[in-house]
Specification:
The structure holds three protein chains of three kinds.
Chain A (H helix, E strand, L loop, with lengths): L1 H21 L3 H23 L6 H12 L6
Helix pairs in contact in A: 1-2
Chain B lengths: L1 H20 L11 E11 L6 E8 L22 E8 L2 H7 L7 E3 L5 E4 L1 H6 L2 H9 L8 E5 L3 H6 L8 H11 L11 H9 L6 E8 L6 E11 L2 E6 L1 H11 L5 E7 L2 E18 L5 E16 L8 H29 L6 H8 L1 H7 L3 H7 L1 E12 L14
Parallel strand pairs in B: 1-4, 1-5, 5-6, 6-7, 12-13
Antiparallel strand pairs in B: 1-2, 2-3, 7-8, 8-9, 10-11, 11-12
Helix pairs in contact in B: 8-9, 10-11
Chain C lengths: L11 H16 L3 H7 L3 H25 L5 H9 L1 H34 L5 H18 L1 H26 L16 H16 L18 H27 L9 H7 L11 H31 L7 H16 L3 H10 L1 H23 L9
Helix pairs in contact in C: 1-7, 1-9, 1-11, 2-8, 3-8, 3-9, 3-14, 4-5, 4-14, 5-6, 5-11, 5-12, 6-7, 6-11, 6-12, 7-9, 7-11, 8-14, 9-10
Chain lengths: 72, 394, 368
């Protein structure tokens, strides 16, 4: 699974990055790298079975336990 | 050059994506499936366990060879195979089948689910849960209750069909001709189970005869209180129930006729039920039945085409239908089971009062006054107008 | 990124169909409020539509005050650069949530109800891949599909009704208006915000429409068509299933499985499954597009295209990790989600409108 992910990410990077470098779009490249890093981390953690807190549960916590705006 | 490579890549990619369409991760080949045609569930001899029999269709040569091999009564000439296993719940038994069957059981073509009498007395809701929850089982499956053991029903080889379960399912559909049996699918049973007050019903089947002359016969209705079997309705009472439910399709009623008797065929009916709470607190249900029918056959020499005679016949028909309905009402009161759904009708019409009525519905049901009004019409008399008697001298 | 330079605009007719198809996807999941409102679900559909129309109007008014600008750009204008970016991030958070929640719904459906052994990730990867591909082609490409999906949905609906006429039992609807008031309020809130209220996402799309002035009419007409469809489905489902509908996870799916014409025409759930997946694909693609435009604008980059697949991968990861079980998922939609969406579809736009009025910015009349 991890190897599959590495290959996929490598392919995506190979397709997307050279055009950005060629056009000297540094801003785009930074943003792209940021997202790329996030994607790699998330998918690796998920593949390794690490328990990641879910953002939706965070929202649920805010609305339910803090604001008590839920129905049931 | 680059353009055509790009195009090729795109075509390859689309074809690759099409592979995903077949859902091949979850594919099952046809010859790895054991197609189940019927389930029979009985109380096991061991405490707290159930026996489940699955009738699997044998599709290879067993289906094509006819009665030519009737002398060699081996299992290979049968078109079906009944596997019975014991376990604590339906789902565990189903998986347990893989210990015996070379193929995994495939339920979507299942026609019937039969519950044994002993099991039904203890309650079938827990066993129904699996059939409701699983995605493979369908909600259109017929439910039946056996007079004795359910697995016996699946053992009887039907005369006209190759697989007992299919014979049984066709048998159920045929009941429309006499309307003396209810036809219940899981869906219908579920609807009555969810209701607070309506009693569930299911057709009864029994095995008649011995040995090779065994046949399966529909013999009335099983009445449940919630999910436990509490009693039975015989054929006449069942038809009375069907009158109220507006589910009579066709049937024959024999009535007295001038000069003999007449068999009147029911062609079409419609029933309206009106429930009412009277001022003095008592409750009534007013059942209005309209029916039209034909003369199927007659005995005796009465000339039933005369209008006076027709009126007599219609009146007799009214009385007969009323009698059937009342017999059903009596039996239902005796069993304390609201099989007609009167409770739900009160809920729909008087939602406020229903809250207080719900608690003692059993007593209220016992005291409900059912009024029946029948309007039977005789439309036709078949091909002949007068019976085959020599003409009377005027 | 100025959205006008991004290729293509869509016509108002396409917008109408797009809005309708966007909501159609949610109509097939009527389990949202059926457990709460039972036999009065049809009433709640009508009131929910009214509420949803009001919500849409609020967002439309905000958009018309700043024609040609998406909500992200509007936030920066109204709140100033820093707070604007903060508010925009919140919007990105909620749009992103919508994307992966809906993806999770599709994944759940395909895996649990049709192909149990397939791993969730595999289905999601294929699905998101196609969505990402569509998003990179641009909004015009996505919206053009709207017409096709619209037809598919309407035809499936009509066929199912014709085949189910025999099974409909209208006595299931009485007694009406007997549930506690809170149920109706909750039902209206759910229907008003989740199928209809999510139209706030279209605030990202309005700038791509030519003839910005007729947008109000198109959007409301689209919502009306979807509301009628939803009403028909609510009536159809309850009249066929009765109170048994409340125990099912997907009542609409069950209704269709009742269809049995003669011996041959049964298992019509296939039709439902196809419509469901296809319509949710449309909805997710539109939201995905809105999300990518939002990213592009908040980070001030020229084009969102390189980011699409990466964001897709992040969505897949999030879809998988948000819930461990179906029951948590089932709790969220009727109880938490309406409030969640209300904040972004109602509260924030009203706030923006008030601030814009107070600061005297934005077009006065709304349209030329």
């Amino acid at each position: 699974m991890i190897i599959f992910l590495i290959i996929v990410f490598a392919i995506i990077a190979l397709i997307n990055v050279p055009p950005l470098i060629r056009e000297k779009q540094w801003r785009e490249l930074t943003v792209y790298s940021g997202f790329f890093a996030l994607a790699v981390t998330l998918s690796m953690l998920l593949a390794l079975g690490v328990d990641i807190p879910s953002p939706i549960k965070g929202v649920q916590y805010i609305i339910k336990d803090v604001l008590h705006l839920n129905y049931k | 050059m680059k353009n055509s490579i790009g195009k090729m890549l795109k075509i390859c990619l689309s074809l690759l994506l099409c592979l995903a369409l077949s859902g091949c991760w979850n594919s099952r080949e046809l010859d790895s499936l054991a197609i189940v045609m019927g389930y029979a569930i009985d109380k096991s001899d061991e405490e707290g366990l159930v026996d489940m029999t699955a009738q699997v269709a044998v599709l290879s040569d067993g289906g094509s060879s006819d009665n030519s091999s009737s002398s060699s009564n081996t299992a290979s000439s049968e078109a079906y195979w009944n596997i019975t296993r014991t376990g604590s719940s339906i789902f565990t038994i189903l998986r347990d089948y893989t210990h015996e069957s070379s193929r995994k059981l495939y339920s979507p073509h299942n026609q019937v689910i039969i519950f044994g009498n002993d099991l039904a007395k203890n309650g079938i809701r827990d066993y129904l849960d699996f059939f409701l929850r699983d995605h493979e089982t369908r909600l259109n499956v017929w439910i039946l209750v056996a007079k004795d053991k359910a697995s016996d029903i699946l053992d009887v080889k039907p005369k006209l069909e190759k697989i007992p379960a299919i014979g049984l399912s066709d048998l159920i559909e045929d009941q429309k001709a006499t309307s003396e049996t209810v036809q219940i699918r899981i869906r219908d049973f579920l609807e009555r189970l969810i209701s607070d007050t309506t009693a569930s019903i299911a057709p009864l089947v029994e095995v008649i005869g011995e040995g090779k002359d065994q046949i399966v016969e529909m013999s009335g209705t099983a009445v449940f209180k919630q999910d436990k079997l509490v009693g039975e309705l015989n054929k006449t009472e069942t038809r009375g129930l069907l009158w109220v439910l507006s589910k009579v399709n066709s049937g024959i009623i024999t009535v007295e006729a001038p000069g003999g008797t007449a068999d009147l065929e029911i062609v079409s009916t419609e029933t309206q039920v009106n429930v009412e709470i009277l001022d003095d607190g008592s409750i009534t249900a007013h059942v209005k039945i309209t029916e039209s029918g034909n003369i199927g056959s007659q005995t005796g020499s009465g000339d039933l085409s005369k209008t006076d005679n027709v009126k007599i016949l219609e009146q007799n028909m009214n009385d007969a239908i009323t009698a059937e309905v009342f017999s059903a009402v009596e039996k239902a009161k005796e069993l304390d089971a609201d099989i007609f759904g009167f409770g739900d009708m009160f809920y729909k019409k008087y939602p406020q009062q229903w809250k207080s009525m719900k608690e003692n519905w059993d007593e209220l049901f016992n005291e409900i006054k059912v009024e029946v009004e029948v309007d039977a019409k005789l439309r036709g008399s078949g091909r002949i107008v007068k019976p085959a008697y020599p003409a009377e001298e005027e | 990124m100025d959205i006008a330079t991004h290729k293509g605009t869509i016509t108002n007719k396409q917008l109408l169909l797009a809005v309708a198809c966007f909501i159609f996807g949610s109509t097939l999941q009527s389990s949202f409020s059926i457990g709460v409102t039972k036999q009065d679900t049809w009433i709640v559909v009508i009131t929910g539509f009214i509420v949803g129309a009001i919500v849409a109007l609020i967002c439309l008014t905000l958009s018309s005050k700043f024609p040609g600008k998406t909500i992200i750009e509007i936030n920066e204008i109204v709140y100033g650069k820093v707070i604007g970016k903060v508010v925009s991030s919140l919007y990105i958070f909620v749009i992103f949530s919508s994307v992966y929640l809906n993806t999770r719904d599709v994944g759940n459906f395909i895996v649990r109800d049709t192909m149990p052994q397939t791993p969730l990730a595999a289905i999601l990867i294929i699905f998101i891949f196609v969505c990402a591909f569509a998003v990179n082609k641009g909004i015009v490409a996505i919206v053009r599909l709207g017409f096709l999906f619209f037809l598919l949905y309407i035809i499936a609906l009509i066929i199912s009704i014709i085949l189910l006429l025999n099974n409909m039992n209208f006595s299931y609807f009485s007694p009406s208006f007997t549930l506690p008031i809170m149920n109706y309020v909750q039902g209206t809130h759910i229907i008003g915000l989740i199928p209809f209220g999510e139209v706030y996402i279209f605030m990202m799309i309005y700038p791509s429409v030519d003839k910005n002035c007729k947008v109000k009419k198109s959007v409301l007409s689209g919502m009306l068509i979807a509301a009628i469809a939803m009403l028909i489905i609510a009536i159809r489902d309850w009249s066929v299933l009765g109170s048994t509908a409340t125990i099912f996870k997907l009542p609409t799916y069950q209704t269709v499985s009742v269809i049995e014409v003669g011996e041959t025409l049964s298992r019509a759930e296939a039709l439902f499954s196809i419509s469901f997946v296809v319509l949710l694909f449309f909805k997710i693609s539109v939201m995905y597009y809105a999300l990518m435009i939002a990213f592009a604008q908040i980070f001030n980059i020229k084009s969102y295209k390189p980011l699409t697949y990466i964001v897709g991968i992040i969505s897949i990861c999030l879809s998988i990790l948000i819930y461990d079980s179906v029951s948590e998922n089932a709790y969220f939609a009727p109880n938490i989600a309406p409030t969640y969406v209300t904040f972004f579809a109602v509260v924030l736009p009203i706030l923006a409108l008030l601030i814009a009025k107070a600061r005297g910015i934005g077009r006065k009349r709304g349209c030329t």
